[in-house]
Amino acid sequence: MNKINPLHIVAFLIVVILILIFKVNFIQKNINTLSYSIEKTKQSGIYLSEIKKEFGNKQKQVKFLKKFLKSNGLDKSPHKLRISSSEINIDIVNVESKLANKVVSKILNTSLLVSSFEIKDVDFNKTIKIKIKF
Amino acid sequence: MLASLQHINFKNIDFKNIDFKKYTLALKNKYKNIIYAKNSVFLDGNNRYTNINDKVDIVLSPKFYWVRKVALPVKSVSKALKIVPDFFNDVLPQGNYKYKVIKSADEFLLFAYEESVILDAIKNSGINITFVNKIFFAQTEFSNFGAINVSNNDVLYYKDNILVKLPANIFTKDIQAVSIDYAMQDIAKSTIYITISVYEDVIATKTSQIVIVALSFIMVFYFLEYMLMKQKLSALITTKNNIVKKYNIPSSTIVFNSLLKSLGSKKEKSITSRQDLYSLLKVPLKTNDYLKIATFKTSGKDKLFFIQIILADAKNATHYKDYFKTKFQIKSIKVNGELLAIKGKK
User: Fold this and answer.
1) Closest to A38 (Cβ–Cβ): which among B130, B216, B236?
2) For B199, which of A5, A30, A107 is closest by C-beta distance?
3) How far apart, in Å, are the Cα atoms of A124 and each of A98, B21, B97, B283, B295?
4) Is B293 exposed, middle or buried (0-12, 13-18, 19+ CB in 10 A)?
5) Structural contact between residues B114 and B65, judged by C-beta atoms closer than 8 angstroms
6) B122, B163, B216, B256: which one has the fewest Cβ atoms less than 10 Å from its Cβ?
7) DSSP SS3 for B250
8) B208 with A38: Cβ contact below 8 A
């Protein structure tokens, strides 16, 4: 007869089930790995995004400093702001201690890479030179 | 017909003149040749076939089945199959019967048979069960003949359109009967046949069916789970791609890690520089002391500093020395009158 032996069907089904179990386990492992990877990528992405905001945007840093200097009247001669491709140079000449403190406080509390800083006292007025690296 | 069909040159066919019925019949015959065996035997339970080494079709003697021709209050064969057992209840002896229904005009031809009986008869006739191709009912195969001699004593005879096996001696007059060998040679097999569960002995049909159904359910369950997981995986891949897109993460891990390292190092340097600068500028000045100069410079890995403090009292120098010692590495300390100069690095 052309009928298939039920044992063959049972064996076939068992083989298919085993293959499916293997595939399900394999895909489950992939899902776990991917879920972990997604979480890690998300954290890295957030970190990258934040750090980029802080240090990856030259224009933003320049804009911020210009705005700060302007708001404190430090954007005009004799004060100087020089911007090159790799750094920013700020010269603040002969300002009162209060304003000097404000500048120092701002620099210390902003995400800037200060590579050089100099403060001099001349007759109780302060002259500050700051070099910030991009 | 088949040969002519195989040699048709389709480019030269005039389709208007084609007799499609002929070609359909040829295809049907070709199909028949595939599903039907070349040889056929009549199974009566009295013959032995020891020389069969190839596929064979079997025509069952009426002694192996019960047949009834009835009008049923249903239209389809599938619905008729459900009520067939009731039509045989009164005539069949105790047994495990299977049924076959054929619709013929307004009536149904109902067959009942026992697989185990047929299987035993096949085995007893010497036919290897694996060679059995299809099993036909004599009822549907011998309609071209009025009567057939199956042995010296028995005749197959259509009575009221039902083929029955009768003793030859009941006929008072001579009847025109052909031999069973002749009938088998001239047989035009119908499309009505049955198949038998050969492996019934190996596993009870019901048990095997239950196992197969259960395994099928498990298979379907795992298959669905596999499909769902595949969908989930696909959704996760999309989510990851969206995150990569949203945060503008470089596709290359090396580039990404390098970028993270570079920006991370910048951040680290920025924080430590500002912390050191804070330590330098926020030196706790004694009363009447004041800061003259403070410089801070990064040079490679080192951070160099220089500070000048105007002292109200030269003794205060120790205080500043102690302070800077805890924060930096002091290179030199000079006290010149009221001027304290400290150089160092970190």
Assistant:
1) B236
2) A5
3) 11, 118, 118, 17, 17
4) middle
5) no
6) B216
7) coil
8) no
Q: How far apart are CA B83 and CA A96, in angstroms?
A: 110
Nearest CA in chain A to B276: A108
Q: What is the pLDDT of residue B2?
A: 36
Residue B41 and residue B49 in contact, taking contact as beta carbons nearer than 8 Å:
yes
Q: Does the reported pTM lie above 0.80?
A: no
Q: pLDDT digits over B284-333, tens only? A: 988 888 889 999 998 888 889 999 999 888 888 889 899 989 988 899 99
Pick among A117, A129, A133, A134 to test the B interface (most B CBs inside 10 A): A117
Are A20 and B295 inside 8 Å of each other by CB? no
SS3 category, B167: strand
Q: Does the pLDDT at position B228 exceed 90?
A: yes
* Sequence-separated (6 or more) residues with CB below 8 Å from residue B96: B114, B115, B116
Cα–Cα nearest to A44, from B266, B264, B269? B264
Per-residue pLDDT band at B33 (split at 50, 70, 90): low
Residue B93 has pLDDT above 60, yes or no: yes
Q: Can you list the alpha helix ranges (DSSP code H) found in chain B?
A: 2-6, 20-35, 77-88, 115-124, 138-141, 180-185, 205-246, 253-281, 316-327
- Chain A residue with CA closest to B237: the answer is A34
- Residue in this structure with the two tokens 């048990």, named with its chain if needed: B207
User: pLDDT digit string (tens) for B130-187?
Assistant: 888 889 999 888 888 878 888 878 888 888 888 888 887 777 666 778 888 888 887 8
CA A90/CA A128 separation, integer angstroms:
8
For residue B261, list chain A residues with Cβ-Cβ distance below 8 A: none
